[in-house]
C-alpha cells in the first residue's frame, strides 16, 4: 500500500471524497484529490498498525 498509494510529497492517493452517494466521489485515481482526507488517512494508518 505504501509503495502504490503514497505520493513523493507524502499525500495519499486513491482516496474517495465525501458525497451523498458513492458515485459523487468518483472516479478515484492516484492523482484525484478528495475534499476531505481524514477518513482515508485514518484507514491507511489503521491498516498499517494492524500489519505491524
List its salient traits.
52 residues, mainly alpha, 2 helices, 35% helix, 6hp_glycosidase-like_sf
Characterise this structure.
InterPro entries: 6hp_glycosidase-like_sf. With 52 residues, the protein is mainly alpha-helical. It has one domain (2-51). Helices cover 35% and strands 0% of the residues. It has 2 helices and no strands. The protein has helices at residues 2-5, 38-51. The longest helix is centred in the C-terminal third of the chain and has 14 residues, at 38-51. The protein is globular. The protein starts with a helix and ends with a helix. The mean pLDDT is 81.
List strands and helices in order, with pairings.
Layout: H1 2-5, H2 38-51
Flag low-confidence runs.
none
Termini separation comes to 13 Å
Helix coverage percent of residues?
25-40%
Mean pLDDT: 81
Radius of gyration of CA atoms, rounded to a whole number: 11 Å
Overall shape: it is: globular
Major beta sheet summary: none
Number of helices: 2
Helix/strand/pairing category: mainly alpha
Order of helices and strands: HH
InterPro entries: 6hp_glycosidase-like_sf (IPR012341)
Task: Provide a short characterization of the protein structure.
This protein has 52 residues and is mainly α. It has helices spanning 2-5, 38-51. The chain has one domain.
Amino acid at each position: 500500500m505504501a509503495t502504490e498509494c503514497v505520493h513523493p510529497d507524502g499525500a495519499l492517493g486513491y482516496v474517495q471524497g465525501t458525497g451523498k452517494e458513492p458515485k459523487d466521489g468518483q472516479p478515484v485515481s492516484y492523482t484525484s484529490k478528495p475534499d476531505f482526507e481524514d477518513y482515508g488517512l485514518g484507514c491507511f494508518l489503521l491498516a498499517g498498525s494492524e500489519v505491524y
